[in-house]
Amino acid sequence: MKPSSILRNTLLLSGLIGGAAGAAALPAPFAEQLNANYPAIETLYQDLHRNPELGFDEHKTSARLADLARKLGFEVTTGVGGTGVVAIMKNGPGPVVMLRTEMDALPVQEKTSLPFASKATGKNAAGEPTPVMHACGHDLHMAAWYGTAKLMSENRKAWSGTLMLIGQPSEETVHGAEAMLKDGLFKRFPKPDYALSFHDDATMPSGTIMYHAGPFRASSDVVNITVFGQGGHGAVPHEARDPIVIASRIVLALQTLVARENNPIDPLVITVGSIHGGTVANIIPDQVKLSLSVRTFKPEVRKRVLASIAREARGEAMAAGAPKEPLVDVQPGTDSVYNDPELIGRMVKTVQGAVGPEFVKEMPAKMTSEDFSQYGLQPGVKAVLLHVGAVEGSRLEAAKKAGQPLPGTHSPQWAPDFKPTVVNTIKAETAILLDLLAPKK
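and the corresponding C-alpha cells:
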C-alpha cells in the first residue's frame, strides 16, 4: 500500500476525513453576502491582472490591499519585509489564524487576449525592461483573500479570536516569506496558531478544492557550476582541456545521482536548465557555466545531494585534467511545504460542508516549490497549503481525451476560470476560518 493511502486510511478511521457528515455548511447569510460582494471582487481581480508588479516591487498592489483591509476595519501595517502587508483584526479571545496571499507577478508577456490583459512592464534582476503578467494566479488569490476578509469582517459575531491577513511579496523568487519573517512578522505581530493559503491549479475542474497531507511541495535550490578548462584551437583539442566535454560529463553524472545514489521512494529532481560556453565552432573555450534546479522533500536528501553535486563536478574535472576545480555556488531557495495531517483532516471535513463533497479531492504531492513552507517551520505554527482547480471542466476533459495539454500556470496563456474558482476558494477559506475561530461554548 502506498504511504499516501496508509495516511488516508488512518485519517478515515479517525473520522478526520471522509463524508461531509457533521460538517456544517456556511451560514445562509454568508452566501447572500458573497453574491452581493462578487462584482467588487471581480473588479479587483481584473484591475490586479491588468496592473501586475514583480517581486519586491509590488508597491501599488500592496497599497491597494492595505487600503481595502483598512476599510474593513483591520489594523494594517505596510512595508513588512519590503512591500509586505499585515492586517490584524482582534475579535475577542481565541486562537490566531493567518491567511496569506501572494502579490507578485512573473516576467512573462501575456498572450491571453483577455480584455483586461496586462500590458505592464517592469525591470528584471539585471535592471532590464521586461513584460509582466500574473501568470500564476496570484491576482485570483488576492481577490479571494479580499472576498474572505470582507465576509469575516461583516460577520464578527460568528467568530472569536484574531484574524491575521498577510499580503506577501515575492513568492516567485521563494524569498518573500523569509523577508517578512526576518522583518519580525511573528515577533512584531501575533504569532499564528494556524497558517492557511490557497493556490490555483490547472489539473482539476474549476472550484475543486484539493488537499495533500504531509510533504506536499518540494524544496528548491539553485546550483551554479563554473567549469574551468584550457582554451585552444578546435583543430588541435589535445593541446587544450575542453570544459564543454567536462560539463557534458557532469550533466550525465548528475542524473546518476538520482538513479543510483538516491532511494527511489524519496523524490529528487536535478534539472540542468542552463549551460553556456564558447563563442564559435573552432574555438575551445576557457570555461563553461551550468545552472541547476534541485528539488527534494526530505532535508537529509537535500543536504546529501547538494554535497554530491559538488563531488561529481570536482571528480569529472579531476578525471579530465582540468587546470583547477570547478566553482560550485549553491543558492539556497526554500524548504519543502509540509501540510499538518491532523489539520488537513479537520479542514477537509469543513470544506466538504462548505462546497460539497464532490468538490473536494485528494491530490498527489508536487515537485514545484512554494515559500509558504517557511511559516510552517516556525515553532508552534500548524500550516496548510490547499490547491483549487481553475480550468472549466468540459475544456479540461476535452483536452485529456485529445491528449493535448492546456496552458498551465507560468504560461503566457494562463487564464483561470475565474468565477467558480474564486467563489469556492472564498467559501473554503471562510469555512476554515470560522471553524478554527469558532467561539467556545
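(Above: one complete record from the training split.) Residues 1-24 have pLDDT under 50 and may be disordered.
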